[in-house]
Amino acid sequence: MLSPSLPQEQERSGASALETLKNHITGIFSPKYSLPPPVPLIPDVQKPLCQQVWYHGAIPRSEVQELLTCSGDFLVRESQGKQEYVLSVLWDGQPRHFIIQAVNDMFRLEGDCFPTIPLLIQHLLQSQQPITRKSGIVLARAVPKDKWVLNHEDVLLGERIGRGNFGEVFSGRLRADNTPVAVKSCRETLPPELKAKFLQEARILKQYRHPNIVRLIGVCTQKQPIYIVMELVQGGDFLTFLRSEGPHLRVKELVKMTENAAAGMEYLESKHCIHRDLAARNCLVTERNTLKISDFGMSREEEDGIYASTGGMKQIPVKWTAPEALNYGRYSSESDVWSFGILLWEAFSLGAVPYANLSNQQTREAVEQGVRLEPPEQCPEEVYQLMQRCWEYEPRKRPSFSTIHQELTAIRKRHR
């Protein structure tokens, strides 16, 4: 027989559950964790120009069209010529560029002046006022800066560790987590077209991730000088390493390092990337003697794997370059294979200069006549045979990097 008090107990139980639920909903219970007091939030429009998502810094004008995809897309950048800021907008399928005028510490395009560029941009976005009456262009969507962009303040520079074609190279650290980095700087006095070439290396490396390819960390383009920030490879360049440490290395260790280079180049070959400047000086050595391909300043990406150069003979490393590239400006993975053969020779000669007794012109003539480098003293016959196949005059007769990688792996396994 049921107890007559049961409905009352159910009512009390339901009330208790409801009270508990109310407490959770209304937050009556005591907080478990204490928090620091909230900090004042700064509206985006009051943040400095370099912190605006649409400010891209000193990017080349040639890159702008790739970033603007829809009518009304816009960004602000620093002119690579004069010290001016430029508003770039896509309109009717074409990028249009407007210099932001600076007058008495105020900024304007055609209408009112504003104390900061962010306030000017906010006004144009909110009012939907045309940038100029003549153009009728209206801002629609801000294009955010690339995820690779760092602020200059994010990088702490150390000592100078080298000099490149465009400027000096420094050691450094990322301020956020103390990651060691190498920082390539671009001279401020270079013309805009050379600054664009400087950034070409970063554009190539953004897409690649491989243990035998030096890793890009970011670029600093928000102001001058422009930086490319890369992983710091502590052992330095392969050529210097060969000349200092080479006499202490066994053949198997040299084969292993060139095998690393072949693995990196096989990866680039699969991505249709032509390096164009493969040499011992452009490879880096880690503390564990692992080799990484570096210096992509001359590299190109081509869908058909072939790049035709029309820039003349300036800065071409003649003694490392394939005949078809020298004669016709025709670069491909096959021309990189020729250069890899020279790199192999450098490795087993412990950093000797190829064709040391010949000038560049004499080297070209000798190669055309069928002359090839002699085998280094300590070079295994099977490695020299691979070099000779890399130096076949007909590009199609040269081995692929996949084949080279496989063969060097097999050679390493046969050596103690």
UniProtKB/TrEMBL annotation:
<dbReference type="InterPro" id="IPR017441">
    <property type="entry name" value="Protein_kinase_ATP_BS"/>
</dbReference>
<feature type="domain" description="Protein kinase">
    <location>
        <begin position="155"/>
        <end position="408"/>
    </location>
</feature>
<dbReference type="InterPro" id="IPR036860">
    <property type="entry name" value="SH2_dom_sf"/>
</dbReference>
<dbReference type="InterPro" id="IPR008266">
    <property type="entry name" value="Tyr_kinase_AS"/>
</dbReference>
<dbReference type="InterPro" id="IPR050198">
    <property type="entry name" value="Non-receptor_tyrosine_kinases"/>
</dbReference>
<dbReference type="GO" id="GO:0004715">
    <property type="term" value="F:non-membrane spanning protein tyrosine kinase activity"/>
</dbReference>
<dbReference type="InterPro" id="IPR035849">
    <property type="entry name" value="Fes/Fps/Fer_SH2"/>
</dbReference>
<protein>
    <recommendedName>
        <fullName>Tyrosine-protein kinase</fullName>
        <ecNumber>2.7.10.2</ecNumber>
    </recommendedName>
</protein>
<keyword id="KW-0547">Nucleotide-binding</keyword>
<dbReference type="InterPro" id="IPR000980">
    <property type="entry name" value="SH2"/>
</dbReference>
<dbReference type="InterPro" id="IPR020635">
    <property type="entry name" value="Tyr_kinase_cat_dom"/>
</dbReference>
<dbReference type="InterPro" id="IPR000719">
    <property type="entry name" value="Prot_kinase_dom"/>
</dbReference>
<dbReference type="InterPro" id="IPR011009">
    <property type="entry name" value="Kinase-like_dom_sf"/>
</dbReference>
<keyword id="KW-0418">Kinase</keyword>
<keyword id="KW-0808">Transferase</keyword>
<comment type="similarity">
    <text>Belongs to the protein kinase superfamily. Tyr protein kinase family.</text>
</comment>
<dbReference type="Pfam" id="PF00017">
    <property type="entry name" value="SH2"/>
</dbReference>
<dbReference type="InterPro" id="IPR001245">
    <property type="entry name" value="Ser-Thr/Tyr_kinase_cat_dom"/>
</dbReference>
<dbReference type="Pfam" id="PF07714">
    <property type="entry name" value="PK_Tyr_Ser-Thr"/>
</dbReference>
<feature type="domain" description="SH2">
    <location>
        <begin position="54"/>
        <end position="143"/>
    </location>
</feature>
<feature type="binding site">
    <location>
        <position position="184"/>
    </location>
    <ligand>
        <name>ATP</name>
    </ligand>
</feature>
<dbReference type="GO" id="GO:0005524">
    <property type="term" value="F:ATP binding"/>
</dbReference>
<keyword id="KW-0829">Tyrosine-protein kinase</keyword>
<keyword id="KW-0597">Phosphoprotein</keyword>
<keyword id="KW-0727">SH2 domain</keyword>
<keyword id="KW-0067">ATP-binding</keyword>
